[in-house]
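Sample 3 of the quickstart, ligand EPZ:
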Amino acid sequence: MAGAFLITGGTPLNGTVGVAGSKNAALPMMASALLTDEPMVLDGVPRLTDVATLCRVLSELGVAAAWDGAGAGPSRALRLQVLDRSPVRARYALVRRMRASFCVLGPLLARRGRAVVSLPGGCRIGPRPVDLHLKGLAALGAELTLAHGYVIARAQRLRGATVDLSGPAGPTVTGTANVLSAAVLARGETLLRGAAREPEIVDLGRLLCRMGARIDGLGTDTVRVRGVDGLGGARHRIIPDRIEAATLALAAVATGGTATVTGVVPGHLAAVLDRLAAAGVELASGADWIRLSAPRPLRPCRITAAPYPGVPSDVQAQWTAVMALASGRSMVRDRVFPERFAHVPELVRLGARIGLAPGAAVVDGVARLSGARVTASDLRASAALVLAGLVARGRTCIEQAHWLDRGYEALDRKLARLGAVIERTEAALPALG
Ligand code: EPZ
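Result:
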């Protein structure tokens, strides 16, 4: 459903809020269900439209996907099991809707010896090439051809090799997931150099090991895989969503509130917490929680979005929105996606003063933002608009709110629990001028 968020800004957010399981951990794990005929159960999978889309892709690939029980929250489990190994095609209509569907390529090829997967195409955060995915699979012996917008891949049995996964912007996260999920069934040893270090990749590796894979070096840029002949099923609880955690933390900080975000791994947010401290936020943390108390205004400070353990590119837009009210000039760079600034023109409509330079935004803090009608575009740009709406004077209407459902489970309800004046409407939108 498209829908819109109606927000009346100005209320400091206070209280406690929990985060869901990680979208970017769940997606490649779901794809790895293709590697075995036994059941896989993933605990803590968030109810997101991206998860639903991948369930459709997997269903067309012969995988039964079902939610265990009617439970909500972290106890909910997603059960996946291959029932038919003959389908090998992931079609464009679905892959273009959710590019991480491209992660089925590696497991399909490794388990079924053949895969026909649509190229994902680009999106608003910039060109999204997959050359490193293909280079890695070719190094493992895959025969790859591109035709009619599809990758056609074949391999009797993949063979271990040394693969370099880093590109001009650093490692590729889903590229590492794709090649890692193929190498586990290759004959012999594979060395993944320039591998992504993201917690989501570490979590995927842990699941694969539970299934019987032999992987060392997870979390470093050199991952060693000793191929096995087959993998079994597994049950695994996915890690918390560090991007949702950062988004909720920034919502409290933007509004000058005091909030506790629970069910997190603070270590996954170290770079973000470092920047929050630089901006003057008082921080405390425990085993699975962080508490933030924000002054008004925040101090301006620089961030550069970079591969893990740097500040995630997926937090850059939200950070830009928060710096719109800081007491001075901030620089926001994005080394991962230098074009990821689609949120800036909409933030400017809300009264922010932001200039753009190649791969960077220059944010001059203002005393206030003013509510307006804005349109969501991509997932994290939409989150930035929500944060801006929470502090803007008056009412903000964010149209096309369905973008948020891709990566945030019930974000409006979570923010409302912290005191935000926010509602979701499917009705005809009120005239806001
Ligand atoms: C993953 O995307 C995440 N998605 C993205 O989150 C995240 O922004 C991104 O990693 C960076 O952290 C999932 O995990 C499902 P990349 P991915 O391959 O894997 C270049 C969100 O909002 N590159 O790590 O597609 C690429 O252009 C989403 O949750 C190549 O050059 O990103 C970029 O500059 C958005 N060739 C850099 O590498 C390739 O073959 C990192 O991209 C692949 C990537």
